[in-house]
Design a protein that fits this description.
By secondary structure, the chain is an alpha+beta fold. It has three domains: 10-64, Aspartate Aminotransferase, domain 1; 91-181, Winged helix-like DNA-binding domain superfamily/Winged helix DNA-binding domain (Arc Repressor Mutant, subunit A); 185-236, 2-Layer Sandwich (Herpes Virus-1). It has ten helices and ten strands. It has helices at 2-5, 10-22, 27-40, 50-61, 90-95, 100-115, 123-129, 140-152, 167-180, 210-218; strands at residues 24-26, 66-72, 79-85, 121-122, 156-159, 162-165, 186-187, 194-195, 198-200, 207-209. The strands form four sheets. The chain has a three-stranded antiparallel β-sheet. The protein has a three-stranded antiparallel β-sheet with strand order 4-6-5. Strands 7-8 form a two-stranded antiparallel ribbon. Helix 2 runs antiparallel to helix 3. GO terms for molecular function: ubiquitin protein ligase activity; zinc ion binding.
Length: 237
Amino acid sequence: NIAMAAQMTDAHRRFLQVLMSHGIMEGSEARKLHRRCCEIHKVYYAHDKLDDFISTINSHLQPLFMQIRKGMSEGDGRAHYALVNLAETEITKMASDYTENELELFRKTMDLIISSENGFASSTDILNLADQLKTKKMKKKEAEQVLKVFVEDKWLSEKNGEYTLHTRCIIEMEQYILSNYQDMARKCNICHSLAIQSQVCESCGIGMHLPCVRKYFRAQTEPRCPQCNDFWSCDIP
């Protein structure tokens, strides 16, 4: 009964509410939540049907210009699910949560990350931008606090004083980044989604996510570029 399958149940609603409160959820957590929601509301559960379950929710979110999207963590290649607002560009959506100069700092941080070779920007470089903001200059201490909030809100990730875009940010802002950074942003040659942390072929310039590089070269005796077949000179992670 196809009509019944596409109906929203309380299990779907509960799943959506929990995801909304988290903003983003790792794949294994989403699978556990799927099972729990079906059990609580006594709805048919199949462990391999999470994506079908989500597409039912998405068909009901469509008129609201919202969607649950699946993306990948650039660090370890794990699947994540995030609730995305399609009605506004993501920077406008952030505008309701941050002041103008905080947003300007975020944009400048994003510029540094996307134009970097490895998809990271150092805290020193970011903090040096704080007193060059056009909207209103920021003291370093203040900028450090704002960066902390961006990490807590899952727009940025930080590791040993280096910042990159959080998985949530990449899932939500993929279209924005691809259209606003056309000359710099690249898609991964393997999974075809936006690649921020990536390795680049020295010969032809294609990029690949680190987890995709790992997976792709695992089966090869000699690492060669999938595009131009030249030797892959980067260290395989």
